[in-house]
Amino acid sequence: MALTNLHTDYLNEPFSFSAKLSDEFGNRSGTYHDTLLNYLKARENDALKHGATMGIHDDGAGLPTIGYGLNLANPALTEAEIRLLLAEAFGGTLTAAQERGVNRIGDYLDGVITAAELIAEDATNADVQSLRMTDVEATRLLEAMLDGLAGVNIGFGDGNGYEDGLTSLLVDKI
Q1: Can you list the pairs that 20-24 forms with residues at least 24 positions away whose Cβ atoms lie under 8 Å?
Q2: Whole-number average pLDDT of the chain
């Protein structure tokens, strides 16, 4: 099935599939873009979609992740690109504490701290905690990632991106 059919075909699917494509209130999406966002939110961080505030966390495979699936271990991302994406999420600028939080992400990227240490700092380091996001902020981050903000490449189709997630969803449907 082509990805373009995802928007129109999900209405005929069993509840378990269509529920993934609905917003946090159970409303079905009216556009492909909204359907895509709702699916990615449910797939990447359902707790955040339903009101939790979350920062850097383990994606289930030990990789530090923030928002709706920004994999901080993605080798295609630089600290500058992460800073740009997070500034977009937080309304265009970062506070001094958030800048220091991004610097800790840079320490992880440079091998100064491990993934486990960075994830643990979400509970202990006020600067890292300042990067915690609401659904609104995480949605802005997701949209910036999908739009390829300023040429930032998050790895679509290479095993790290959302296209692979959509493909796996469609394979599960067949």
Answers
A1: 20/169, 24/49, 24/50, 24/51, 24/135
A2: 76
